[in-house]
Amino acid sequence: MTQHRSPTDRTRSLITQLAQPMRIDALGPVAGRFIYSLRLIAAHERVQRDPVPELAIRLGGMETAAKALAMSQAIAWCWPENVHVSRFCCCHLTYDEATIGAMIESAAGHDRDGFFESVTGLVRPERIERLWDDALALVSAEMRAG
Description:
The chain is mainly alpha-helical. The model has no long low-confidence stretch (mean pLDDT 91). It starts with 8 loop residues before the first helix and ends with a helix. It has seven helices and no strands.
């Protein structure tokens, strides 16, 4: 007969944290804006419209809009399945959005190790470099626009 141990306080705490979705306002400004951009791009794709004009207005310029679109395309290419995004008005993040937010936060902090760690095991190793490059390009465009 197998005996099960009672969960530790740390295990219970971790389970509680996983049950509560992360909020978008917990992200830094660059990551939060990108998550909203990702949601906007998804909404435009559903109705087969070009998202760039609205992205340019919301992000303050064509360069930032183009970099956000390039980053979203890189994610779509690298991700192992379709990326799940919340509705534009939702304050909670999906697990995909939380992972993407962590990626962008790491890029904004020039934390290459943190970036790679956030997607290791999810994205094929040979594709992570492309994500890193596109994330840095997005962060640079955001800094120039700000």
